[in-house]
Amino acid sequence: MTSTSSQRPRQRRGLWPLLPLLLLLTLAVSQLLAPSVAGAPATGSSYALAQAASFNRPSHYPLDQRPDPRLYQAHADWIGRLILPGSSETDRDPGDWVWIEIEHAPPMARELEGQVLRLEWAERPALRELVERVSTDVRFAPAAQELEEQGNLLPRRLDGRLRVGPLQSLAGARPNDDLIVQLEEVELTPETDGSTRLSIGRPPLQITGRYVGLGEILGPVGEEPDHFRVRHWSPSRGDFSGPEDVVRVPQQPRDRFGRWISTPRGFSSNPLGAQGWYLYGAPDAEGLFTVQAIRPRALHRLHPDAVLPAARQGIPYILHGNWADTPRQRGRIRRVLLEPAGSGPSRQTTGPVGERWRPGDRALLIHSFGGIGGPGGERISGFTVTGHFAFGEARVVSDAITGEPRFDLRYHQIYANNPNGIVSGTQDWTAFSGDLQRGWMGSRPISDVLIKLQPFDDLTVDGRPLSLLRELAIQAEVLMARYRSGDGTGVSTVTPSTSCVQDSSQALYIAIDRLRRRAAEDPGLRRWLQLHPQDSASRAIRQLARLSSSLDQLLTPFGTVRSDWRHNASVVAGETFVRGETGLDALMSWRSMLPRRAHDDMARVFLQHGASLWFLRSNQLAGGDTTIEPLAPTLLLGQIPMLSILLRRFSDALFAPLGPAALGRALAILAIYAALALPLGWRSGFLSPWRLEAFGPALRAIPGLLLMPALGEELVFRVALLPHPLEGGSLAGAVAWGVLSVGLFVLYHPLAARCWYPPGRGLFRDGRFLMQCALLGAACVLAYGATGSVWPPVLLHGLAVTLWLWGLGGRARMQDLPQPIP
Fold first, then answer.
1. What is the DSSP letter of 756?
2. Are residues 551 and 516 in the same domain?
């Protein structure tokens, strides 16, 4: 198969002159991505410390104990605990299969509960391809032992096994067979011996809690600090006037860094509790319902705190508002909806948003979390809070308890070896954010951005299914399985080129590439699109094509796809995946090096293509641990705001794509500038008639003039001073900054002549020269604003100076004018 880069020409941009600077930045990011801790950690993993508490082990929750069905419902139809087969079993019966203990089944298969069954994949081409692409022999690399000594959890039971597939790498990710999953698209096959075989049409979804109830946490009970009285939801009245119950919300052991991942302190006093908490868990041996995950009902209701017009406030909110004042928001949530143009002015709302978000809708999910600050928090390296990034999928569902619409979130977590036992794979919100043992809801600020766009719906075109969300889920599963096995080495670490954010971006690139190639290689599909140009599916596909082009520019900022991404997009059974490990690999996708950058840029691109964006923000819920505070993820050097802003503006300006439209706008500005500046200069007598002087010396002078004054002055007066077009400022603001830029540019010249450039002392105070400066400055401001790139104003500036010096009498005027005495 050919990759996207071979299907259409790519624009080449200026990477190589700035390679040393980018290599230095890559080295800085590699240091930032190293684990940051506060103080010396305890030996062993945080997972092992948590396992010392009986309530973190599956055996604590007997399957024959069931809660009151009036108060608690099953978390899902099919729930089970994965069990890794022994190596002798897989030697006798090769293939990607595992055992599963059925913890809950739908009514038609209730007799299977408590049984241990064989679980395998359904016979589907896409699943067969998935297994063939990622199955690998596992031989631990020498670095595995060092990682384990640092407290990371590695899949030790997989070492030495052959052809480990995605199911076995999932079941063997932890040492104690304690991974609980939800099964979807289940098929039951009776065996001749009377047993039943399960097969699934989708990868298992990691979840936490066998049952779920909804209630108000009223407060602790007696002298038991982790026993709480709960008043449950009343379906008949639609409020919390149901029966009261006592549940246990256990205090988790501290992790290896001495921190509580979660604490029950604060749940009963948090204002969010007025809308209730979903309590996920199961009864223990005595029948006491023990909470394993908790979710605030308010967070995922379709009730935004504010609805903002995307055209005016969208990009500023993405870049600044979403994470604003994070430390002060501990224990709180905020829900903001950005609506496309035409949705009306900003408004506060307490009711659901009904028309654009309805049950059955699906959305792309962009997830990020920040850091843990405060006296008990993490050590921050290099003034940068790196955080984390993942894609996922959101659905609007009708809640089984209240009947109201709410969001259901799942993440495609590409996750490296870690001390907590977090397993790379698709995870329900309860398993990744809300889990009391390892979820981040109580210790980190979290941003989930839900992106609704027509191309994200399942499209069927002439009988052919096309779904970006489905394709992204498949490609993410490939990478998540590779992380679980370490591509056969057992080792998955974070580097500037291989990380949660880089490889999530790789999954998106491959998904888009495969959809694009599928459309290009299917003549029937192309013919159908030509015959039905006004069909909704045709319009959605055209919109997806435009979106893909913008995402290409984001994911491949130099116009060239990373070699490992290009190779992995075309891997088939039997071929080896490639992991990019060099600094150049990281530079080729530099916009995906830091989670905050990718989070903001992805959201901006989707917003600009007409998407509706819903921001769900939580900040260390319920906020009971006062020794920590939430820290927003940042750009490079983000805790030094001014320097961080400059770095972002420099990178955006230096590496902005220059397509035909942008070049056309720049040439038009150049023509208008020349039409104004040349006649004015000749009429005033400041410019001499055109006569080229000394072609050879002029040619040799061009590189120096492009460097200074052109590049140097443009970096200062345009890039550093002006908000980049990607920052989404208003027209009035852009005009004000542009006027300031031109004014300072003009004033700079007589100041320079007086302070450090004696040859210009007479000339730089000439009103005619200053008028030419003003025209040049205005042209450069317009060129920068129209293209977002520093190079058009640099070339315009350099061209103007060169032609003036060597063709319009500039050199003679610089040399011959009398120099006034200071």
1. T
2. yes
